[in-house]
Design brief:
Distance between the termini: 33 Å
Number of helices: 9
Radius of gyration: 23 Å
Helix content: 55-70%
Structural class: mainly alpha
Shape: globular
Strand content: under 5%
Length: 267
């Protein structure tokens, strides 16, 4: 009598590899089913993208485009100095960022009613396409294209920041670090105060270690992305945006595909 064969799933060779598990995490990073790990992974990816495009974009157009603090400050300075042409340029960048954020809200809210599974994939896919457009503008070698490139980068950053803001419930931002660095400083101050509290017999101050575990990696990834973006633009020019676009498309594409149908016997 033939011996029963072990079930195929019991074979160690069929267990998912570490690479498979990592790809599984990437596949669900933009899922509409959100978990804390999903938010952190997507935040890290988008912080890398923002850092790369902010640093590389500065070398491309001479302006940082991922945060509006400097832009609004420059508008005020230029207005006080009577440099109305520069005021108009600054307003254009500010409006571009606003339009990018509004575009993200439109895409996500429309998809929640018509294509819920794709609600976060749509803005990420659009960002990927706009990064490809950015790379294409670099091939024109025309100084007149620089203002349009700066506007495009501001639109992209507004689109991305609004997307991660809506996904994470405003807990994670990726295009600027001021608030995150401030929060890190607050938590580190609490850590330092704990020793003082012991000496003075004061009640201990609770430290939000979970917040630190989110903010520190995101700030680090923004820095790493900035380094990669600066080196990428130095050696590749605008084409450095193409692998970044591919990364975003890899995150968005699993949610853009149709649901897989499981084959059943006789079907």
């Amino acid at each position: 009598m033939a011996l029963p064969q072990p079930h195929p799933t019991h074979s160690p060779s069929l267990r998912p590899s570490r690479a498979d598990r990592r790809w599984r995490h990437i596949r669900v990073a933009a899922s509409y089913h959100r978990r804390r790990g999903n938010d952190l992974l997507l935040g890290l990816i988008l912080a890398f993208v923002a850092g790369a495009m902010n640093a590389g974009g500065f070398l491309a157009v001479g302006r940082y485009t991922s945060h509006m603090t400097g832009v609004v400050s420059s508008i005020a300075d230029d207005l006080a100095l009577g440099l109305f042409g520069l005021v108009g340029a600054g307003l254009t960048l500010l409006i571009s960022f606003l339009c990018g954020a509004a575009c993200s809200a439109i895409l996500i809210n429309w998809a929640r009613r018509h294509a819920r599974r794709q609600q976060y994939a749509y803005p990420l896919a659009l960002e990927s396409g706009l990064l490809i457009l950015f790379a294409g503008l670099g091939t024109l070698h025309d100084a007149a294209v620089a203002p349009a490139t700066a506007m495009l980068l501001c639109f992209i950053m507004g689109l991305q920041n609004a997307t991660i803001t809506k996904i994470s419930g405003a807990r994670i931002r990726t295009t600027h670090l001021t608030g995150m660095v401030t929060d890190i400083g607050i938590e580190l101050g609490k850590v330092a105060y704990r020793g003082i509290a012991r000496l003075l017999s004061h009640p201990p101050v609770p430290v939000d270690r979970r917040k630190l575990s989110i903010l520190l990696p995101i700030v680090s990834m923004f820095f790493f992305g900035g380094l990669v973006g600066a080196l990428g633009f130095k050696h590749l020019g605008h084409a450095f945006a193409l692998p970044i676009a591919a990364l975003l498309l890899a995150v968005a594409s699993p949610q853009l595909q149709g649901r897989r149908r499981v084959a059943t016997p006789g079907s």
